């Protein structure tokens, strides 16, 4: 009899410390919006990425037109600046959210999860900030010997 | 009976008898008082073509090794006690015919994954039932109690018919890779049983159940891998039910 009561006692304590229990409140709209964002950004990215590929690789001279001057020409127009910025932000955030989900699904310990997510956030923020900075501070005349028409005036 | 004609005619073989064959079962064994880790043991069983995996397990327990531990109650696919991993797939041992799981090779029998192992094929189902209780699996109503029964049209009844079939065997939840990972996910079975009440026209607790499942560990953790739909011994479209709960959450917002 003592053996059985011991067993029920350990069962009760293990139930309290059960790894299946959700301790911190986990209810909220965050995952709902993240799910919606993935769908919406996915559709937008389809348009943005294929539009980008079509304009760069197929229109006009196609792939042979791509050089420094081609990029400088595109980024002189606010339309392409906004297009590329949207592509950068949505692509990075879409990828960030996807990898975040993968980390949640495959890591088993909170510690590992925290380390991986911190690395992910740092990499994402770094790329977004650097990319946005380049798009808006781009100087076509960075080379003093540039022969581009905007620079020789 | 051509089947009996191919059998060597022995003295006890009667005309019309079901042919027998020998099948090997590789059963995962674990005794927490002795073993450090689970291991496999092999048993040879003489089975009939009409036998189910449960019959083979019974034969092992009753005739070869009485210490083999597994759950079963009704043994006819209604109670949901004997869900186990047979040849790598979650099934009910009482609904799986041996001849259907390739008896030419050893048949692997393991406990369902993702729940704490207690002994042999028995797992602790309590975390599974905790998630089930969380979604409030009972009728919630507002207003006065009617003096007669709560009338429902056939169309309204059909809306959630699929998810009323659940027998809580845990085959779906323990086939879900997201649940295997850390056991925090509510699991398909809890969502199926929430679906059963959310889409019941007589029930008024739909929105509170949706809020319960609008959780970091709720419906949004579903990756639509369809493991649950494949595993369900009752043929419930589990993934579809989860998607319908997601859609109900979205339409309640937009």
The helix content of chain B is 25-40%
| Sheet with most strands: strand arrangement of chain B | 2-1-5-3-4
Supply the helix-strand structural class of chain B. Answer: alpha+beta
Q: In total, how many beta strands of chain B?
A: 7
The overall pLDDT of chain B, averaged over residues, is: 93
Helix content of chain A: over 70%
Pfam families (chain A): Sdh_cyt (PF01127)
GO cellular component, one term (chain A): plasma membrane
Keywords (chain A): Cell inner membrane, Cell membrane, Electron transport, Heme, Iron, Membrane, Metal-binding, Transmembrane, Transmembrane helix, Transport, Tricarboxylic acid cycle
Cofactor (chain A): heme
Explain the overall architecture.
- The complex is a heterodimer of chains A (153) and B (254).
- Chain A has helices at 2-16, 30-57, 68-75, 78-106, 110-137.
- Chain A is mainly α and 153 residues long.
- Chain A has a domain at 31-137: 3 helical TM bundles of succinate and fumarate reductases.
- In chain A, helix 2 (30-57) packs across helix 4 and helix 4 (78-106) packs antiparallel against helix 5 (110-137).
- Chain A is elongated, with a radius of gyration of 26 Å.
- With 254 residues, chain B is of the alpha+beta class.
- Chain B has two domains: 13-123, Beta-grasp domain (Ubiquitin-like (UB roll), Roll), CATH 3.10.20; 126-141 and 150-251, Orthogonal Bundle (Fumarate Reductase Iron-sulfur Protein, Chain B, domain 2).
- In chain B, the strands form two sheets. In chain B, strands 2-1-5-3-4 form a five-stranded mixed sheet, with helices on one face.
- The A-B interface holds A 15, 18-22, 26-32, 34-36, 104-108 and B 126-127, 130, 177-178, 181-184, 211-212, 214-218, 220-221, 223, 246, 249-250, 253.
